[in-house]
Amino acid sequence: MILPIVAYGDPVLRKKGAHITKDYPNLEALIENMKETMYGAFGVGLAAPQIGLPIRIFLVDTEPFAEDDEFTEEEQEQLKNFQRTFINAEILEEVGDEWAFNEGCLSIPDVREDVFRQPKVTIKYQDENFKIHTEVYDGLIARVVQHEYDHIEGILFTDKLSSLKKRLIKGKLVNISKGKIKVDYRMRFPLMKKKR
């Protein structure tokens, strides 16, 4: 089932996600619904707060980036085959010189900005069977993981922008929170006026 994606301005996007256990209600269905929602919105990642749940789950599927010619064949192959469900994730280390990449977010449609992040990340997480993994990612996979991890920490990519950039996009963000935007996927807007 495709769920509505929560728009910028909703308080749930600012909450630090709670850890969950394997007996979380309807977890398998939730993960399937999140996948459907992410693919339905043409996303490469989706975190539980983006569907209104302040819990520590996010999904990543970088396959759409695999078509991009700017990557080597080896990188394209890695991107094509990277699909993960991260539960109760914790970033252990981020290393390297920060690099810029133009990021967007399903909760903040039509806003894309260069964000600086470190290129290599070590993350500990549980998969959908609650098996523990500690893995190291770099490049674009690391970036997508960092972006989605930020969501379960209550952080948005716009928080990482300069104060000037934030001022320049403020009007757009207000319009998004009021639902004054056209998107081709289901969204839930926090400040949209209810029709009487």
Automatic annotation (TrEMBL):
Cofactor, how bound (note): Binds 1 Fe(2+) ion.
Enzyme superclass (EC): hydrolase
Positions in coiled-coil regions: none
UniProt cross-references to NCBIfam families, sorted A to Z: pept_deformyl, PRK00150.1-3
Family: Belongs to the polypeptide deformylase family.
PANTHER family assigned: PEPTIDE DEFORMYLASE
Protein known as: Peptide deformylase
Annotated organism of origin: Psychroserpens burtonensis
Higher taxonomy: Bacteria, Pseudomonadati, Bacteroidota, Flavobacteriia, Flavobacteriales
